[in-house]
Amino acid sequence: MDACRQEVDGEESEMVKKESVAELVSRLVQGTTYEMLDAAEAIGRTGEKGVRAVAPILKSGDRESRWRAAVALERIGGPAVETLVTAARDEDFLVRVPAIWALEQIGDTRAVEPLIAELNDKDIKVRKAAVEALGKIGDIRAIQPLLGCAHPPLSERMIEERQLCEAAQNILDQMCRNDVKPLVAALKDNNWSVSSMATKMLDKQGCETLSGEDRAWYLAAKQDWAQCAALGCIAIEPLRTALVLRKEEGAATALAEIQDPRSVEILLAGLMEHYDWFYV
Predict the structure, then answer these.
(1) What are the tens digits of pLDDT across the range 83-135?
(2) CB atoms < 10 A from the CB of 230, how many?
(3) Which residue has the higher pLDDT, 160 or 145?
(4) Is residue 13 predicted with pLDDT exceeding 70?
């Protein structure tokens, strides 16, 4: 009898919990701002049940409801990350933006790679939200992708693009203030926009401490071929990369000045493969 009674009590308790979450969701969506915030805090303590109840509201046609759902999911925290990551990939940017905001507030590193992918989103608002989220999380995996976003736009009229660029630069300043190693690593990136922006950030942070091969990569990324050649053999690989991958003819001249057998091999290979543009 007691066992049966406990089972009934458990079922009734579960019903109360379900009704309670439903009521909280109703207040979340329909209540005043203060009621919404109270409901979001309470939903934050319901874990996975709260996630299941609130997640569909992220796809609501009503802007206010979407953002209220994002607030509640942010309060839930870790258990909501996977749901928010999925929403951040939604076909509708009006769903992606509040989902990314919630991931920013939670700060879970599981969101880093998905957020990096959003830096290539076609919508500027999504890209800007992703930049800000990655800055808040502060994971070094984001540094090279953020460097790619930090180049100023070609036109002064591209105001939103310029704001995105400035936001990325400010975040990079903060992330690399005490450690330039990620920027040095970015000098080796095959994407010129990444490596060249890394040199600009290093100039701001102070590149005086760079020496040896690190300095060679720095000078090659800055296209300072004369100083790069003056470093001798340690500059061969940075110059080879500039020549072969970025087709920088100045790198060929620098390699010729080094007069090392390895540089000669690189030049001969380049001459045979790219005879139409390659001159020394």
Answers:
(1) 999 999 999 999 999 999 999 999 999 999 999 999 999 999 999 999 999 99
(2) 14
(3) 145
(4) no
Dig out the tokens for 176 from the structure: 């690399």
Q: Taking the mean position of all CA atoms in its chain, how far away is CA 248?
A: 29
Contact 232, 259 (CB under 8 A): no
Sole residue written with tokens 């690190």: 214
User: Reduced to 3 states, what is the DSSP secondary structure of residue 38?
Assistant: helix
Average pLDDT, the chain: 87
CB 135 within 8 A of CB 147: no
Q: Of all residues in the chain, what percent carry a pLDDT higher than 70?
A: 88
Nearest to 203 by CA among 223, 229, 183: 183
For the range 171-175, what are the long-range contacts, defined as Cβ-Cβ under 8 Å and sequence gap of 24 or more?
171/131, 171/132, 171/134, 171/135, 171/146, 172/143, 172/146, 172/147, 172/201, 173/201, 173/204, 173/205, 174/135, 174/138, 175/135, 175/138, 175/140, 175/142, 175/143, 175/146
Rounded Cα distance, 21 and 54, in Å? 9
| CB-count exposure of residue 168 (10 Å: 0-12, 13-18, 19+) | buried
Burial tier of 87 (Cβ tally within 10 Å: 0-12, 13-18, 19+) = buried
Nearest to 150 by CA among 136, 162, 132, 168: 168
Measure the CA angle with vertex 58, ends 56 and 61; round to 5°: 95
Q: Is 77 left (phi over 0), alpha (psi -120 to 50) or beta?
A: left
Is the CB of residue 213 less than 8 Å from the CB of residue 239?
no
| pTM listed for this prediction | 0.81
Per-residue confidence band for 242, with pLDDT thresholds at 50, 70 and 90: confident
203 burial (CB, 10 Å; 0-12 / 13-18 / 19+) is exposed
